[in-house]
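ok new one. same drill as before - structure tokens go in, u give me an amino acid for every spot. 184 of them this time. try not to just spam alanines like last time pls lmao
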């Protein structure tokens, strides 16, 4: 589906932004919120040259006053629904840039949403915090959701609800890369 090897720009349908009810990363960005961005990266790659880069300049940890962490998403939104009938897994590779630290991140996960947002499926990878590429494999349930109505999929970054012990007091800008995304 997407390997970002043959394009020097962000493919149509890809975007970075706030997750559900996130108060950070608002677009347009009224103060103090900031805007997440996407870019093509020729330097970062899983296998072949090129990947999609998401930059998330978070300014706070907490989602409202709930204690839950802020969320950023690097996602593809299809112009029409996708039919994944007969498909059993979503495979994707992602890298969390560890240069600014990763202890502000609770966990990253790949997700799939249907057109009515009635079904949300997600999967995580082990050892994501080491700054290397990791494969995410999201099993697609055989029943209980409409495989003919896939509308969005992508990488979700979930921050911790409070600053971790030892800091940082505010989350650093978080940079992620995705590559080699396909369904089996």
């Amino acid at each position: 589906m997407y390997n970002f090897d043959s394009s020097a720009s962000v493919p149509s349908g890809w975007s970075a932004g706030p997750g559900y009810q996130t108060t950070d990363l608002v677009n347009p960005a009224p103060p103090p919120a900031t805007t997440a961005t996407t870019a093509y990266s020729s330097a970062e790659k899983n296998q072949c040259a090129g990947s999609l880069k998401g930059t998330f300049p978070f300014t706070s940890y907490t989602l409202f006053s709930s204690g839950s962490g802020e969320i950023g998403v690097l996602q593809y939104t299809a112009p029409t629904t996708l039919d994944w009938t007969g498909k059993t897994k979503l495979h994707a590779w992602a890298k969390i840039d560890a240069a600014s630290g990763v202890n502000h991140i609770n966990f990253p996960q790949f997700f799939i949403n249907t057109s009515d947002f009635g079904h949300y499926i997600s999967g995580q990878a082990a050892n994501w915090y080491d700054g290397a590429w990791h494969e995410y494999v999201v099993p697609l349930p055989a029943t209980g959701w409409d495989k003919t109505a896939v509308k969005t999929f992508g990488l979700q970054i979930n921050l911790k609800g409070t600053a971790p012990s030892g800091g940082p007091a505010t989350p650093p800008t978080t940079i992620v890369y995705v590559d080699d995304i396909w369904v089996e």
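Residues 14-183 form a domain with the Jelly Rolls fold (CATH 2.60.120.260). and btw The chain has a mean pLDDT of 86.
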